[in-house]
Structure formats: C-alpha cells, structure tokens
Amino acid sequence: xxxxxxxxxxxxxxxxxxxxxxxxxxxxxxxxxxxxxxxxxxxxxxxxxxxxxxxxxxxxxxxxxxxxxxxxxxxxxxxxxxxxxxxxxxxxxxxxxxxxxxxxxxxxxxxxxxxxxxxxxxxxxxxxxxxxxxxxxxxx
Length: 140
Prior knowledge:
29% helix; 6-stranded antiparallel β-sheet
C-alpha cells in the first residue's frame, strides 16, 4: 500500500507529490494528473496525460535506483501542461534505437515522444527531471 500526502500547489498553477520509487506509485501519479487536469478543465488531456506519467514513472523506477520520485504537474504557460518525474539519478534517458528488441521493453520513450508536443530532461547536480508537455487546445 502506498501512503501518500494530498497533492499541493507548487507554483501558479501546479501540483506535485513525492512517492516511493516503486511501480505501484504510477497509480497515485495518474490520480494526481487526473486531478490537476480536471481542476484546469482540461479533461481532454486525461488519456495522454495519464499514459505519459505512467511511462515516465516506469522509466524512473526501472532505470534508476532511486528510493523516491517526485511527480510534478504544472502549467508553464496557457498553451502547455508539463508532466515531470524527478529522481536522484543522473543517468540520462535513452530512446530505443533501430534494431532494439521492442517486444519486451524500450517502448516507453518512443511512446512519450509520440504523445508529447515536446519532452526533455533537466539535469541537476543531485539528479534530473524527465518531463513531457501536452498542448492545450484552445476552447472553440
């Protein structure tokens, strides 16, 4: 069972939560993304947003030895929602290459690349944040 604090604002506007570096944390991360998108009236981004955070959490858990990860959902501008996963490892994510066996693994960043308007990694002295941004469609 994952014990989790309630999401809390991290700027204007944004939400974040620190979770154990476990696969099971993906469910709490999806809930945080759904909550933020509902508050911002961006429910149309729920499916891609929850899929993005699932892949980012899976990559952080699988490819780092981090005990805790931090999920950040923010609005860097009116046009974008940014979903990020912070971990304490400085290992940069690598996209699968041609010839890699994609039947068992390696599809995560390919999926992130296909779903996100843009994505990247911010490297810090103590770790990194891998993030992906979704474009907010203007209301018709």
